[in-house]
Specification:
Distance between the termini: 10 Å
Number of domains: 1
Helix content: 25-40%
CATH topology: Cytidine Deaminase, domain 2
Strand order of the largest sheet: 2-1-5-6-7
Largest sheet: 5 strands, mixed
Strand content: 25-35%
Radius of gyration: 13 Å
Number of strands: 7
Order of helices and strands: HEEEEHEHEE
Length: 120
């Protein structure tokens, strides 16, 4: 993982949206993605008996279901120390290996900014 340079306002926005989803829904993770047109999709963890999705997987699914064809960036707010491989894979599937995945702590502090591509 690499430490990120200061965030641009659009990246700060998706972290704020992800943080809000986590707090509002009382879920372990909140996520937001920005598509190629600048639209954002916000989601929290889905934990049903028959369906389990991380917040970031849910946000990517929402983007796809709404017609997005690419992602510019993704953010997840979590207690985790690094983005999950499955989350990075979901972002990579729609956005490509260079799409940034921003991981923030629950207080919004950026922990990591990594590409969606496979770990080296």
């Amino acid at each position: 993982m690499t430490e990120a340079a200061p965030l641009d306002p659009e990246d700060r926005k998706i972290i704020t949206l992800a943080r809000s989803a986590r707090a509002r829904n009382g879920v372990p993770e909140g996520a937001a993605v920005r598509d190629e047109t600048g639209r954002t999709y916000v989601a929290g963890t889905v934990a049903l008996d028959s369906l389990k999705l991380s917040a970031l997987q849910t946000a990517v699914a929402m983007a796809v279901a709404s017609g997005a064809t690419s992602l510019e960036a993704a953010a997840v707010v979590s207690e985790a120390e690094q983005p999950a491989d499955a989350d990075r894979a979901a972002v990579r599937d729609l956005g490509g290996p260079d799409t940034p995945v921003l991981l923030a702590a629950p207080d919004g502090t950026l922990r990591a900014n990594v590409p969606a591509g496979p770990s080296a």
